[in-house]
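look at this one:
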Amino acid sequence: MTELSIIKGQARPRMTPRLTLQTYVLLLKPRVMSLVVFTAAVGFLVAPGATDPVTALLSILLIALGGGASGALNMWWDADIDAIMKRTRNRPIPSGRISRRATLIFGLLLSAFSVTALGLVSNWVAAGLLAFTIFFYVVIYSMLLKRATPQNIVIGGAAGALPPMIGWAAATGGISPESIFMFMLIFIWTPPHFWSLALFMKEDYSRAGVPMLTVTHGHQATRRQIFVYAVLLALVALSPIALGFAGPVYIVAALVLNTRFVLGAWRLRQRSDEVARDDRFAAERKYFRLSLVYLFLHFAALIADASLRAGGWIS
């Protein structure tokens, strides 16, 4: 049986929702959740002080569920534009696998559960940060910024930058310069990461009416901004060396990765739209993939140094 769904003035058939476990998993945005899990785990594991493995595992799981809850609430709010964009039109709501109302209820219940459980399992500082993360992503970014300003991802990126701070707080009960550094690393990384995606996904954002920088200011302005943020990111990434809490693995990784990232941004800045269209935005796609590797290796280096420190290899 089907029903008729009207989205942006277009009639499209939609299947009657058939709820499955896979549907609920997809509402959690598994790929985004994997980044939340990884960065939160790093924040937890590099924090000083021993924590029992069960508490550590439960804390990271609850942080992941909180991130998934914000993803579900984002899908509830963005269901209309998700149906228009190629990248998102197969998500559970526009594909007809679940209703907006069921998604809203699921997201709210999961938010309440994850925040409350994290407070009980770990501490209320971490729980408060998780609650703020969900609020910021859903209300500040999704509802207020995403459709209103090309700076949406610059400001909204704070939500995705908070998981390592939550992990650190879950382990220590507080905030420190190290956890603020991890926040800033992701916060400044987010614009060049998403803008490199937007360079080859401009038409998608344009059709959906999302004022991404590529839509409002064009490709060349976006390339210039990517370079500016790549330079700022390098300064942030290298700051632990000056502050004295970077280990040898991180120092080498940061020097190599940031040299590569800034040079890549500079080369991207020199490209014209004509060249980019001719090669199907190959360089932009490559830079987007590099941005993923960049963040992963920085956090992996933090873990490596923490392991060396725990083993007594470095002080």
User: Anything to note?
Assistant: The chain has two domains: 19-173, 176-308. The beta strands are 2-7, 10-15. The mean pLDDT is 92. Residues 162 and 183 are 6 Å apart (CA to CA).
